[in-house]
Write a structure and sequence with these properties.
About 40% of the residues lie in helices and about 20% in strands. By secondary structure, the chain is an alpha+beta fold.
C-alpha cells in the first residue's frame, strides 16, 4: 500500500495542505492502479532555516530510498 511522505516548508494553510494531499493521492492512484483506500499521505513541515540540515542533507543527498526526481536547487 503506498504511503507518501511530503516534506515542505511550513506556512501553508490547511486548505492548501489538503489540496496537495488530494493531488498526491490522485497521482498515486493513476500511476499505480491502487484504489483511494490503499493510499495514505502525510505532510511534514519544516522551518526554512532547518531545511538544509533536516531535509536536504539526510533525505536528498544521503537519502535511504532511491531518489527519482532531484531538485533543481542547491541549498545555501
Amino acid at each position: 500500500m503506498p504511503h507518501v511522505i511530503v516534506k515542505l516548508w511550513s506556512g501553508r494553510s490547511e486548505q492548501q495542505k489538503q489540496k496537495l494531499a488530494d493531488a498526491v493521492t490522485k497521482a498515486v492512484m493513476e500511476s499505480t492502479g491502487y484504489g483511494e483506500e490503499s493510499v495514505s499521505v502525510s505532510l511534514e513541515e519544516f522551518a526554512p532555516a532547518d531545511w538544509t540540515e533536516k531535509v536536504y542533507k539526510p533525505g536528498i543527498l544521503a537519502g535511504p530510498g532511491k531518489l527519482y526526481k532531484r531538485p533543481g536547487y542547491t541549498p545555501r
